[in-house]
Amino acid sequence: PALDRLVERNAVQICASRDMDAILVARPELVGADAGLASQRERLRGDLQQGMNASLARLRSAGASLGVEVVRVDIQSSLPWSAVSAFNAVLTASQQAEQAVARARNDAARQLQQATQAADRTVQVAQAEASERLSRAQAATATIIGLAQQQDPQLLLRLYRERVPAILARAGSVTTVNKDDAGHMILQGPGQ
């Protein structure tokens, strides 16, 4: 019984001074991430052996020697079924969370790709429409540019009378001013 108490006492002290991952693999996702935890798990047996031998030495110095020295300690983890099922539930939840994150990343990448394609398509359509408008404007003004180079004032006046009324009809209001009038004019605004 004294040896059992010694083992239990030292095991509790050593385990209480460590993180759970330094005792057993509680979070499998950290197995390859932290080599320090693996080395602490390896040292657990040696620390338990040293603690037990130190406790036995104290008993020996007090005159209550058990006549035992610990040469080797083997540790085997044994968890209650409820703890095993809880660990399994945590592992399952972790895997499901990782799958959800992977799905979310895939969805985000797909949405980004679709948005980029839509933006490219919008830019291409806008450039095509701008090019088409420019071509129509150049075609519409080609006649006027050609007429501006004409020296026949009668032809220009006739074309002016034919086309200007259609242009002015699109305006909300038209105010005409004699180009030879050198005086100052006060024009009413659209609201008056």
Short description:
The chain is mostly helical.
Give me the secondary-structure topology:
Elements: H1 2-16, H2 35-61, H3 81-148, H4 153-169
Helix pairs in contact: 1-2
Describe this structure in words.
66% of the residues lie in helices and 0% in strands. It is an all-alpha fold. The chain has two domains: 2-77, no CATH class; 105-169. The protein is rod-shaped and about 135 Å long. The model has no long low-confidence stretch (mean pLDDT 80).
- Give the fraction of residues assigned to helices: 55-70%
Number of strands: 0
Q: What characteristic shape results from the CA principal axes?
A: rod-shaped
The largest β sheet comes out as: none
Compute the CA-based radius of gyration. Answer: 46 Å
Query: In angstroms, what separates the terminal alpha carbons?
Result: 111 Å
Spans of at least 5 consecutive residues with low confidence = none
Which secondary-structure class do the elements indicate?
Answer: mainly alpha
Number of domains: 2
Our estimate of the beta-strand percent is under 5%
Report the mean per-residue pLDDT as an integer. 80
User: What is the number of helical segments per DSSP (H or I, 4+ residues)?
Assistant: 4
Q: Helix and strand string, N-terminal first?
A: HHHH
